[in-house]
């Protein structure tokens, strides 16, 4: 998160993870929530006007809206996104459950403790489903968010990415997701993502091969100036490697590297690509086969 103050003294919190900012009364509301990054996630849009003419902003896990009096509230997109019909997880005991008089469903076990530790009804809203199985995960929906159970993780309960899910379900304008690079004086590169593949999956000995490398940053923006170091590993002798020419990505985040394998016999060849950009380094792999 980057703090930016504009010429009119307006304060913005810029999130290089997604390329969007939180500002004005949205920022005031945001800063009033304890542990807010964990609960809301990062903003995935800037503030925009919805179809009813009110201002709103999507985050990974929630959506915020502004009412006619300028007050910010959490949109009930849990209720809007929820579709009944999932398999219900029956509760063997109600001793670890709580159901208020105005709730249709109880909240139980780890869901209950998480609910009360992180703001309860003021953040989550009322429960609108029981504990269910959805896409292979145990979940429970609330008016504003939904919770997922991760039994093998350090955090047993996590808030699902309902903001992102509902953005897509509602068919919002995808251009709103594009990062705003003008909000940061120096746009920081935090992560590299790459796609690597070869032109020919099967080659004859001594034929020319082309390796294609495409690199973006954490927001899917093509990244130029990434250094590419590549080695070939042969299945017959993993200790014997061949270095191929160094590459660098262009303004479109693309590099094409041409080479001929030293191997003459029939075998699989593994390509290990190391990408370096400033202090960030990642590896990617692909392969092809020599036909002989």
Mind explaining what this structure looks like?
It is a single chain. With 292 residues, this protein is mainly beta. It folds into 2 domains: 183 residues, no CATH class; 98 residues, Immunoglobulin-like (Sandwich). The protein has 6 helices and 22 strands. The strands form 6 sheets. It has a 5-stranded antiparallel sheet. The radius of gyration is 25 Å and the shape is elongated. The termini are far apart. The model has no long low-confidence stretch (mean pLDDT 89).
Describe the secondary structure blueprint for this structure.
Layout: E1 2-5, E2 11-15, E3 20-23, H1 24-31, H2 36-40, E4 48-49, E5 55-58, E6 63-66, E7 72-74, H3 77-81, E8 87-88, E9 97-98, E10 107-108, H4 109-117, H5 121-124, E11 132-134, E12 137-141, E13 146-149, E14 157-159, H6 162-169, E15 193-198, E16 202-203, E17 209-216, E18 227-234, E19 237-248, E20 254-259, E21 267-277, E22 280-290
Parallel strand pairs: 16-22
Antiparallel strand pairs: 1-2, 2-3, 4-5, 5-6, 6-7, 8-11, 9-10, 11-12, 12-13, 13-14, 15-17, 17-20, 18-19, 18-21, 21-22
Unreliable spans: none
Q: How much helix, percentage-wise, in residues? A: 10-25%
Largest sheet descriptor: 5 strands, antiparallel
Topology as H/E string? Answer: EEEHHEEEEHEEEHHEEEEHEEEEEEEE
Approximate shape? elongated
Number of beta-strand segments: 22
Work out the strand percent: 35-45%
Salient structural properties:
mainly beta, single chain, five-stranded mixed beta sheet, 2 domains, 292 residues, five-stranded antiparallel beta sheet, Immunoglobulin-like, 6 helices
């Amino acid at each position: 998160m980057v703090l930016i103050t504009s010429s009119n003294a307006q304060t913005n919190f810029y999130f290089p993870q997604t390329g969007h900012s939180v500002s004005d009364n949205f920022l005031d509301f945001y800063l009033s929530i304890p542990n807010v990054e964990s609960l809301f996630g990062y903003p995935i849009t800037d503030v925009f006007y919805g179809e009813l003419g009110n201002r709103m902003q999507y985050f990974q896990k929630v959506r915020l809206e502004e009412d006619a009096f300028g007050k910010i509230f959490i949109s009930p997109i849990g209720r809007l996104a929820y579709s009944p019909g999932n398999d219900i997880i029956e509760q063997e005991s109600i001793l670890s459950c709580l159901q208020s008089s105005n709730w249709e469903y109880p909240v139980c076990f780890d869901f209950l403790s998480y609910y009360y530790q992180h703001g309860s009804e003021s953040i989550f809203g009322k429960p609108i489903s029981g504990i269910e199985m959805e896409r292979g995960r145990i979940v429970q929906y609330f008016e504003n968010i939904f919770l997922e159970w991760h039994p093998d993780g350090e955090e047993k309960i996590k808030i699902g990415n309902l903001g992102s899910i509902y953005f897509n379900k509602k068919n919002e304008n995808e251009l709103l997701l594009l990062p705003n690079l003008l909000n940061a004086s120096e746009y920081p590169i935090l992560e590299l993502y790459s796609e690597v593949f070869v032109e020919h999956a099967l080659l004859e000995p001594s034929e020319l091969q082309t390796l294609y490398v495409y690199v973006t940053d954490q927001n899917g923006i093509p990244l130029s100036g990434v250094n590419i170091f590549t080695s070939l590993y042969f299945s017959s002798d993993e200790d014997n490697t061949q270095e191929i020419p160094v590459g660098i990505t262009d303004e479109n985040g693309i590099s094409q590297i041409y080479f001929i394998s030293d191997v003459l016999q029939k075998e699989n060849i593994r390509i290990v690509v190391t990408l370096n950009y400033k202090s960030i380094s990642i590896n990617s792999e692909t392969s092809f086969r020599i036909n002989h």
